[in-house]
What does this fold into?
Amino acid sequence: MIELKVQAIERYLRRVYGDDARFLAAGDIGSLDAQGMKGFGYGKPLLVRFEAGGAIREAVFSVMKGDKYGHQFYWDRAAVLMFQYETSARMERHVRPLGLGYVDGSDALIPVNGAKEFFIVNEKLLGHDYFQDLERIRKSGLRDGDLDLAREFARWLARVHADKLDDAHLYARRIRNLLGASECILGLVDEAFPPDYAFFGADRFRALEKRLIDWRWKLKGYAHRLSAVHGDFHPWNVLVTDDGDFSVLDRSRGEWGEPGGDLASMAVNYLLWSLYDREKLAGPFRELYLTYFGEYLERTGDSEVLEVLAPFCVFRGLVIASPEWYPDHPEGVRRRLFNFVANVLEDDVFDWAHVNRYLE
It folds into this structure.
């Protein structure tokens, strides 16, 4: 609950309307009963009367209540309020927004004025992108430490995924997003491939989507697996130092999700690099894949992940098969990736040790 006090309202009004702004009263809409302020933190609108520029004015302050319909986190709710602030005044007869802001850790009301875009500032980390290591391995083979690094990836994921959350609604949301979000499977189908794509036509995409609905209903029974996740763990989001340490970038798609998503993301990229020189997972990339996958299963004891992995393999397979992001794939590489995407859904349990059979 937000502990909204008169002093906080007064400070906000002065920041927005100038030093002469003066708080007069606040409470429920229609009554200005000051006791109504206690409900502000639960999504209950608060009517505020104030004086600014010599005129008496009234405004309604609101926060959005969290719910299970995609508004569990404050950043979800912020997106809705930003939309309303940006667009409401452009609609005939719609109430006009007077301000947009956030409540900080001390319950102060901070205005956001004239926002056009948001940005983030991160620390600068040392190291090189992990995909450069994969390019080096493709040219000259494994070095001392390459397999150890793959093991460390698996150990790190095991530690991250050990943090669990009991929230069936949130797990269901993450599975819905995997299939239907604009940056996930259906978004890729619509936007990352040209119409009548020669390698995977509309009929095959339609069949893929229908098969994924079966998997969505299957995964409804796995809500107990909700865990802390990275959400985008692939070679372009890993920085490696010369001494073999690593850091990760760009956590995405939420703090909680299905651990299999992280596991599949890196594993499918080992497959990609192998296909550039072989028609299957083989050589040094097979060693990396088996080391990484085997270490994860040993550390977590999570054989159940193999029962839920296929749709996440489809997502990552579509990403790396896309001509928009990977325009230079040889024809054979792309065809085998699409074979993988289509075939992996046909097994109830992912056959991680014999992944090459999904490429045929």
Summary: Residues 202-219 form the longest helix (18 residues). The two ends are 56 Å apart (CA to CA).
